[in-house]
Amino acid sequence: MDSSSLTQQFFQQLINGVSLGSIYALIALGYTMVYGIIRLINFAHGDIYMLGAYAGYFATTYFKMSFFPALIFSMVVAAIVGMLIERLAYRPLRGAPKIAILITAIGVSLLLEYGGIILVTPQPRTFPELFSTTTFNFMGMIVNSQQIVILGISLALMFILTYVVNKTKVGKAMRAVSFDTDAARLMGINVDRIISFTFAIGSSLAAAAGILVGIYYNSIDPLMGIMPGLKAFVAAVLGGIGVIPGAMVGGILLGVIEALVSGFLSSTFRDAAAFIILIVILLFKPSGLFGKNIREKV
Amino acid sequence: MKNKVVVIGLCMVLLLTAVIFAGCGGEKKQADVIKIGADLEMTGGNATFGQSAANGAKLAIKEINAKGGLLGKQLTLVIADNKSEAAEAANAMQKLVTQDKVVAVIAPIASSSVMAAAPINQQAKVLAISPTASNPKVTVDPDTKKVREFVFRAAFIDPFQGSVMANFAAKSLKAKTAALYIDNSSDYAKGLAQFFEETFVKNGGKIVAKEAYLQKDTDFKATLTKIKSQNPDVMFVPGYYQEVGLIARQSRELGMQMPMLGGDGWDSAKLAEIATPSAINNGFFSNHYSPDEKSAAVTTFVEAYKKEYNSVPDAFAALSYDATLMIIEAIKKADSADSVKIKDELAKMKNFAAVSGSISFNENHDPVKSAVIIEMKDGKQTFREKVNP
Hints:
CATH architecture of the largest domain in chain B: 3-Layer(aba) Sandwich
Distance between the termini of chain B: 78 Å
Helix content of chain A: over 70%
Mean pLDDT of chain A: 87
Mean pLDDT of chain B: 87
CATH superfamily of the largest domain in chain B: Response regulator
Radius of gyration of chain A: 19 Å
Number of strands of chain B: 15
Structural class of chain A: mainly alpha
Strand content of chain A: under 5%
Number of helices of chain A: 11
Shape of chain B: elongated
Largest sheet of chain A: 2 strands, antiparallel
Number of strands of chain A: 2
Shape of chain A: globular
Oligomer: heterodimer
Radius of gyration of chain B: 24 Å
Low-confidence stretches of chain A: none
CATH class of the largest domain in chain B: Alpha Beta
Strand content of chain B: 15-25%
CATH topology of the largest domain in chain B: Rossmann fold
Helix content of chain B: 40-55%
Largest interface: A-B, 40 and 30 residues
Strand order of the largest sheet of chain B: 7-6-8-9-10-14-15
Order of helices and strands of chain A: HHHHEEHHHHHHH
Number of helices of chain B: 12
Distance between the termini of chain A: 48 Å
Low-confidence stretches of chain B: 19-29
């Protein structure tokens, strides 16, 4: 193979990787926010992503909504469900040992997956065509308009999130709770409300990822959240769990690594690569790429 | 207080006797019927397959009962749900052979479930015939290398499908190079790929790429970009419709227009929905039967099925209908409802005219029969050609 087609392939893989990675990043943000605030790996997060995809499916198929209203609808539904889960499953265990909450999270995850199978059947479903896809061809590299939409919406949501966390009063409260819950409570911050709010934001981001994936891949099913959930967890750890920019970079990096591994090594190593990265990070830099000196955790 | 206890006690006694008498009545009536069991996936992940199969079996039994039944008796179908799980398949088989005392069983759809249930019907000496289990190990025990005496199937086995598609690629599509893109989490896909490769190379072709994915993957573009750089004449994707649909769509988006080939795992209306109808054009797969085939057996079956269930029968329904017909034929030939005699007749069966072709059993209890190749045209399955063994 000559070198020009090899570079062309490399850039094509980069494009594939970034569009996959921006999905991981959106899911990873929710993981990282929840972890930052109550030190809980919320294993049900991947299933919230599935729930968001289904909310989007019902909004577009039965209520005939167009793309943006459906996106907002599914984000709102997921935010409500996220808050409910926090209120019913995690809040009663706030004083309990960490392991108890972790097991509860796994239980909630299984409940959503198999409850989903009962409610909506395990049959995969497809989205109606919401906007036409055009394919652009730059010097042999192929980009799809949906990939651009996914990347654009992901970046916009990440930007809004960074703004909320860093520039608003609620964001300040979130950072305070993350830094020291008891001190924050003494300062008059309603900690329960802030935690609830964090779950709402994290869940709505996962739902956005869910509906984007549903439209892009055109296939959703009740167990779709398991693997992306795990990968996003790897991405969050890669970037430094609890750190918002870390989740974004970690997600995109993971997507690119996966694309390059399956493109230039072997597709059978792809998932192995993701988890080897997780192990290596846990061994050598447990705090992740961005985790070291940043004290500000949300 | 005491009175109340007495009343409740009396009620219970009455209830119990009622149950016992009801049971007796049932027993007497059962002497006039021949029971056939069905250990099928009525719920769970493969529920749509199992329900189709149950419909096919019910139709066959209804038809024979309308003609006066067998040996002067009516047939009944006893369905036991195996919830799409191997362990439950064994439980369901246990219930059918011990409690319901069926003379033969329509065995599960999935190969793994048939294998889990096989020891039970083997021990009870009750014939089980799976409509669709296509793994070679289903009828031949891999440990002892012996044929399982009471296990049969109505579908052709994986090696046959793989070589049918390889011959089709080499001869009808004139392909010289092929890429394999295999579902690594499925023995079925790996089996098909292995035999595709052997036959394709034997025909003088070359395998230029061999890649793999896992079930539930959604993004295939990285690997497809790699396959594209090898520029194969055809791509063989022997997986299930959900991932195949995504692969078709994403490969066409990347500008790959070569024919895509696969096996009966493609057989679902969801395939074209997930892929979009235009992306799955130029897609071909092997299947057990096509409702569009213009043979008398197929058209009569399709008409009857449509009248009964108001839908077009899929391959699961057709094969299960065939399996039930074979049991009926064997009972007729044996002139007895004795399970061992039925089994002997079935093993001897030659050129039995079924919906999915003419069936003879070989020494491994595998049917020797034809396959059809289906072409996807604008989201519709169309009959392309029939391949004889």
